[in-house]
Amino acid sequence: SFRRHPEWFPSGYARVFDAAVGHAVTVADAIITISQASAQEIAEVYPRSADKIWAVPLGAPVVEKEMIERRSVNEGAAPFLLYVGNFGQRKNLGRLVEAFATIKRLQGFEEVCLVLAGGGNPRLVESVARRHGVADSVHFPGRVSDSELAELFVAARAVAYVSLYEGFGLPIAEAMAYGVPVVAS
Q1: Sign of the C-alpha dihedral, residues 22, 59, 115, 98?
Q2: How far is CA 118 from the centre of its chain?
Q3: Rounded to whole angstroms, how far apart are CA atoms 137 and 152?
Q4: Which of 9, 17, 74, 123 is least enclosed by beta carbons within 10 angstroms?
Q5: The whole model's pTM is what?
Q6: Is 92 left (phi over 0), alpha (psi -120 to 50) or beta?
Q7: Per-residue pLDDT band at 136 (split at 50, 70, 90)
Q8: Three-state DSSP state, 167
């Protein structure tokens, strides 16, 4: 991503990171990445590394049947849409909040909240939420433990993953493992 979209990173970051990664792929015996798409992109960017790249796909967690069954028990709880990840520009969270604001104006969706769980600085997302009048309905629990994340997946009405650029979207696989509908771009 730092090579394809340097505008998403602080000034000079792409140049420094490219030098470091370029050296690493040159001296590495093997390069393991999370998807075939990422493997192909690495080979395009660093062609001499193509013969030593291995795609090892990520997997979703094993979810106990009881966790999935608890989803039906949560039907009476306050409804929320869940995002899991960081707050980087490529995650497209400003657009997600804009879409959420549109949903909030629809009849029957007034009580819906948006929960953005993850690391990073949420200031940009908070300002978009204020500008669209939904700041009180957008919540930032920060980084959460694995057990807290499982509880969020179980309670969520849907998971949103609208990233502009990914090698693999693990929260999508996790949501499906929990039986949660996914909204993805």
Answers
A1: positive
A2: 9
A3: 16
A4: 123
A5: 0.80
A6: left
A7: very high
A8: coil
